[in-house]
Design goal:
Layout: H1 10-15, H2 18-26, E1 39-42, H3 48-61, E2 67-70, H4 86-94
Parallel strand pairs: 1-2
Length: about 100
């Protein structure tokens, strides 16, 4: 994690509604949500913008003291290795089980 968020504008960050998200996490019962959750799973598109937003959200969500993870990314089931680009292969190796 880290690095600058260069591909996201302030207007786009406002659209994320981070304060509302933090409020829902801190007081889930207020929103009729199961209050005893332990993990926040980020599921964003595997694009430069999605990666930048994930990094931003991880930094903002640290204060919740919840476990923060991302969905797996890499090669799809049935995908052909010969068609995979370098970044996809890197992600697949980093997320291997």
């Amino acid at each position: 994690m880290g690095g600058p968020i260069t591909s996201i504008t302030k207007e786009e960050l406002k659209k994320l509604r981070i304060e509302e998200l933090l409020e829902r996490i801190k007081k889930p019962e207020k929103f009729g949500v199961f209050a005893n959750f332990k993990e926040i799973i980020l599921a964003l598109n595997p694009t430069v913008e999605g990666e930048a937003i994930s990094i931003y959200l991880e930094k903002k969500l640290r204060e919740t003291k919840k476990k923060i993870t991302r969905i797996g990314k890499g090669l799809p089931m049935g995908g052909e290795l010969e068609y995979a680009d370098e970044e996809t292969l890197k992600s697949a190796f980093e997320g291997r089980k």
